[in-house]
Design a protein that fits this description.
The chain is mainly β. Helix content is 0%, strand content 68%. The protein has a nine-stranded antiparallel beta sheet with strand order 1-2-3-4-5-6-7-8-9, with no helix packed on it. A hairpin with a 4-residue loop joins strand 7 (101-112) and strand 8 (117-128). The relative contact order is 0.13. The mean pLDDT is 89.
């Protein structure tokens, strides 16, 4: 189950919660994710903050196996009516695994080609510590533990 709330204005606030149960007759909560975020717009700039906590339990022992906190800070700059540049930094750490830490820096640009078509580019730099896993990464499958990783993502989105 999941629930999310958003308030939009010059100050934007959002929060969400999601829980996933194991299957079977004795289904128990296997994972929980809670997030809260805020943004504030002044002219062409929007500052953003967010926090996410994800917890996973072993379905057999019912013990917590991971408790990840992820913090994000960023700024969006509306450079034109159809273009927004973004810079964000994220720090993720698993409280149950001291070496599972990842810091990710993201530069991105979103350019509206038309009302329904957007060109998007993203450059990601991720620094994953020696025990880093996908739990502390903000880019799925894009980091290698104990190394620095650079990713480039380009896409076109068209809404029908």
């Amino acid at each position: 189950y999941s629930l999310g709330l958003t308030f939009s204005g010059p100050v934007s606030l959002s929060t969400a919660y999601q829980a996933t149960n194991t299957s079977g007759a004795n289904s128990d909560t296997a994972s929980r994710v809670f997030t809260v975020g805020a943004g504030y717009t002044v002219g062409a700039l929007t500052g953003k903050l967010n926090f996410l906590r994800g917890e996973n339990d072993n379905p057999v022992t019912k013990k917590e196996v991971s408790k990840v906190d992820s913090y994000g800070f960023g700024v969006d700059w509306k450079t034109a009516a159809n273009n927004t540049a973004m810079a964000d930094i994220y720090y993720g750490k698993d409280k149950n695994a001291s070496d599972d830490k990842t810091t990710t820096f993201i530069l991105a640009d979103e350019y509206a080609l038309s009302k329904r078509t957007t060109l998007y580019g993203q450059l990601v730099f991720a620094n994953a510590k020696s025990g880093a896993t996908l739990l502390t990464a903000v880019v799925a499958g894009g980091t290698v533990k104990d190394t620095n990783t650079t990713l480039l993502n380009v896409r076109i989105k068209h809404s029908f």
